[in-house]
Amino acid sequence: MPKRAGTHKVAVIQHPPVTLDRRKTLERGVELIEKAASAGARLISFPETWVPGYPEWMWRLRPGGDYKLTGEIHRRLIENSVDLKAGDLKLIQAAARRLKITVSIGVHERDGEFSRGTLYNTAVLIGPDPAVLNRHPTPVPTNPEPTATGSADPTGPRVNTTPMRRVGGPTP
User: Fold this and answer.
1) What band does 171 get if pLDDT is binned at 50, 70 and 90?
2) In this structure, what DSSP letter does residue 85 have?
3) DSSP string, 31-67
4) Is residue 157's pLDDT more than 70?
5) Which helix (H) or strand (E) holds 9?
6) Are the beta carbons of 82 and 109 closer than 8 angstroms?
7) Per residue in 66-104, pLDDT tens?
8) Which run of H or of E encompasses 84?
9) Can you give 132-150 as a three-state secondary structure string?
């Protein structure tokens, strides 16, 4: 019989971000990570597009009629989204390293290499080393999400080995 791994505590964060403010949201995230880790959590999971917040306004604004407001909100969403290659999650990665925990966090990921304007609804898994173990963007956003995010590589999520166990995640 294979040896069974020990028990591990998981924390699911159900606290709002600071909408459209990446820096303040990440600072809040570090506080929440510290609190969960002090209670013994080794895996801490944040919601979909937690950084910089889910664009729930897209379900309410009228195409055309609210163009000026929609444009301003979308500009702020792009400016506060996460560019992984630019190191925009360094605060979370530093907390993961310091506390020796794994973090799953939903972000609006900005394509920093090509268009600079395409956003993806991405789940990011950060290990305690603190490398990005996995990033998985939603392959096909649902109505009306394509007004804020683009379609991504449909290869699917991967399962990653962490110090606790293997961790995988669904499309955000």
Assistant:
1) very low
2) G
3) HHHHHHHHTTEEEEE--TTTBT---GGGGTSPTTTTH
4) no
5) strand 9-12
6) yes
7) 778 877 888 899 999 999 999 999 999 999 999 999 999
8) none
9) EEEEEECCCCCCCHHHCCC
**Pairing, β 9-12 against β 41-45:** parallel
CA distance 133 to 80: 22
Q: Which amino acid is located at 58 in the chain?
A: M
Structure tokens at 135: 């990033």
* Token pair of 38 as six digits: 């002090």
Strand, coil or helix: what is 86? helix
Helices (H), 65-171: 67-79, 90-99
**pLDDT, averaged across the chain:** 81
Cβ–Cβ < 8 Å for 154, 133: no
What average pLDDT does this structure show over 13-31?
97
**Residue 149, token pair as written in the block:** 């995010």
